[in-house]
Recover the amino acids of this structure.
């Protein structure tokens, strides 16, 4: 069967044997798991053996792009990776704006690349149409992200998309990330270290083959209608000028526009241009230029008291090393707390950790190169706890599966409302991350009557809406008289909604559509199904598309269940229930541990999972066509 949308090929790279092979992407695989993120998950279940060391050569890197990537569908450049992550031993995933890499990789003729083994020396992969090579990277090893990308572009020219790691990945820092085109971050949880463990410095892709769609007339009509709707959006100009600052106003607009903004850039096919090129225009770091997925991320160290120019310099250093900013500051904060309680002393530290650029630059280098006490910090929050034992654990920041739960009443990003993003930090098989699933509870506060429109957009069935919004919105007398419980006062069941937020995210991710609010707000489940059908020739309606997304998420969960994860690992941080606490999304009900646990129960129920174990049931797996997975888990005594 010749499908549109898909390139139709999977690359297999064995670094140990220096071997490159190609195989067709089977139509049944594409149909059942959609593409991109979904097919990545299926490959991970089949190829990643349980209980392997994430940094061993047995681990497998899977990179994929969805069937809309490389087409003119707006915002369809997303790249996803799946591997076993070293920060917490989960079968983790990560997605990033594909910049030029996603489009170039697809145009080279591939939907996925699977990398196994370990090279005997540093290498990079060159994927230029049919010319696929494992190339020597000795000259790149030891260089940061910036120089790695610039040298590859100098050697091979542009356009070409690049995934690369810095020194943190080379030295197996457990919260090292990869970067796409030195701009988009890829792999919170240690994907950069997985690349480093394979001596894989970078992947560069260029393609000239084009991407065919099955029904070009229908596809063009759908895309043109979507583009017109985007053009008519009243806040389009504001988004194009300010990017994520529109919804995350952490930085004064005047400071951004007058002292930082140099240019706006975008991933291929994005009509917004939500990425930034910023440049410091005065002071000690005058002239420093930084490519970033968002200026908001680049100035985040201002939350720790740094002036804006030092904040930019700090993130420029961390990004060049290829290091997760949130984990970096989390481990430093944790160590300082342990110093306050004399668990960590001067005997451990070579120098004091202070929140100024000199000290932060010193500790970033120590961690990236695993120098001195930086070797301990390179193991992340869990590495510190392993060294200093149970006495240290009570001083740890709020964590989700070993990662900082960064959004919350005590997180680096202080936020009091308890919505899908906050709960999903705990429930996600990979742990805390930024993909909220695109539900309307993500940061923006909306009245409950607005939610039903979004529910329809996300493909939530009508019968489920009644469980998510179980009562009328006004509560005219019952709330005032106290005749309803705190949970009923909320009017919104975040636990049940989170299930559908995950499925919506999965549908977007598997097709390759950006999950950021300024793009996914223009998409809806019916349109996704129509675009998928027109592009691929595989006819689906929105109900079937969302069912396939549900299948993917259940398979991801089952892959982690096979690793030993269950409800015991969906652990709510104790500090969330100390003062100040989360409040509910709209009604200002204080979220107690009992209420949060009820949301967990409701989430498992809505998924049709075993509530006590927090895992898919045999019946659910069979219903989703995952019979072999059910049989595997039965043999292991899990079901």
């Amino acid at each position: 069967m010749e499908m549109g949308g898909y390139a139709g090929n999977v690359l297999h790279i064995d670094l140990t044997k220096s071997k490159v092979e190609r195989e067709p992407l089977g139509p049944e695989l594409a149909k059942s798991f959609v593409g991109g993120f979904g097919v990545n998950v299926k490959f991970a279940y089949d190829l990643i053996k349980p209980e392997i060391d994430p940094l061993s050569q047995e681990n497998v890197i899977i990179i994929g792009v969805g069937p809309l990537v490389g087409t003119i569908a707006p915002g369809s450049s997303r790249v996803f990776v799946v591997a076993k992550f070293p920060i917490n031993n989960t079968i983790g995933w990560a997605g990033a704006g594909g910049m030029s890499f996603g489009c170039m990789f697809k145009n080279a003729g591939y939907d996925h690349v699977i990398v196994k083994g370990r090279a005997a020396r540093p290498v990079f992969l060159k994927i230029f149409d049919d010319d696929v090579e494992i190339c020597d990277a000795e000259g790149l090893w030891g260089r940061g992200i910036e120089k790695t990308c610039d040298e590859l572009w100098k050697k091979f020219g542009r356009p070409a998309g690049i995934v690369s790691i810095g020194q943190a990945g080379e030295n197996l820092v457990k919260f090292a990330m990869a970067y796409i085109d030195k701009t988009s971050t890829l792999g919170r949880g240690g994907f950069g270290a997985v690349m480093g463990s394979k001596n894989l410095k970078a992947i560069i892709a260029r393609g000239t083959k084009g991407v065919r769609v099955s029904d070009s007339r229908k596809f063009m009509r759908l895309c043109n209608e979507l583009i017109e709707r985007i053009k008519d959006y009243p806040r389009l100009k504001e988004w194009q000028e300010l990017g994520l600052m529109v919804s995350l106003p952490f930085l004064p607009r005047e400071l951004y526009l007058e002292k930082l903004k140099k240019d706006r850039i975008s991933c291929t096919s994005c009509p917004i241009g939500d990425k930034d090129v910023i440049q410091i225009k005065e002071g000690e770091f005058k002239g420093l230029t930084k490519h970033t997925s968002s200026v908001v991320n680049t100035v985040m160290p201002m939350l720790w008291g740094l002036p804006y120019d030092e904040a930019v310099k700090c993130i420029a250093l961390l990004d060049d090393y290829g290091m997760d900013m949130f984990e970096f500051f989390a481990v430093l904060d944790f160590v300082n707390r342990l110093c306050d309680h004399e668990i960590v002393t001067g005997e451990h530290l070579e120098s004091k950790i202070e929140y100024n650029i000199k000290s932060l630059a010193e500790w970033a280098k120590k961690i990236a190169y695993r120098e001195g006490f930086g070797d301990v910090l390179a193991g992340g929050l869990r590495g510190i706890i392993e060294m200093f034992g149970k006495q240290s654990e009570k001083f740890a920041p709020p964590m989700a599966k070993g990662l900082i739960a960064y959004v919350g009443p005590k997180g680096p990003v202080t936020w009091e409302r308890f919505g899908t993003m906050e709960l999903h930090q705990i429930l996600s098989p990979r742990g805390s991350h930024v993909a909220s699933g695109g539900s309307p509870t993500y940061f923006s506060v909306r009245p409950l009557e607005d939610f039903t429109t979004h529910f329809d957009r996300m493909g939530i069935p009508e019968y489920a809406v009644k469980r998510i919004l179980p009562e009328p919105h006004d509560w005219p007398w019952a709330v005032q008289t106290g005749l309803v419980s705190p949970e009923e006062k909320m009017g919104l069941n975040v636990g049940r909604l989170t299930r559908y937020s995950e499925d919506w995210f999965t549908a977007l991710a598997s097709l390759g559509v950006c999950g950021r609010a300024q793009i996914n707000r223009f998409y809806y489940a019916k349109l996704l199904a129509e675009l998928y059908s027109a592009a691929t020739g595989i006819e689906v309606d929105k109900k079937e598309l969302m069912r396939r997304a549900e299948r993917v998420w259940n398979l991801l969960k089952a892959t982690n269940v096979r690793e030993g994860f269950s409800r015991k690992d969906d652990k709510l941080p104790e500090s969330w229930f100390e003062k100040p606490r989360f409040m509910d999304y709209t009604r200002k009900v204080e979220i107690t541990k009992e209420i949060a646990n009820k949301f967990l129960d409701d989430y498992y129920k809505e998924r049709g999972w075993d509530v006590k174990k927090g895992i898919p049931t045999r019946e659910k797996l069979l219903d989703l066509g995952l019979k072999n997975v059910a049989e595997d888990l039965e043999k292991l005594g899990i079901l």
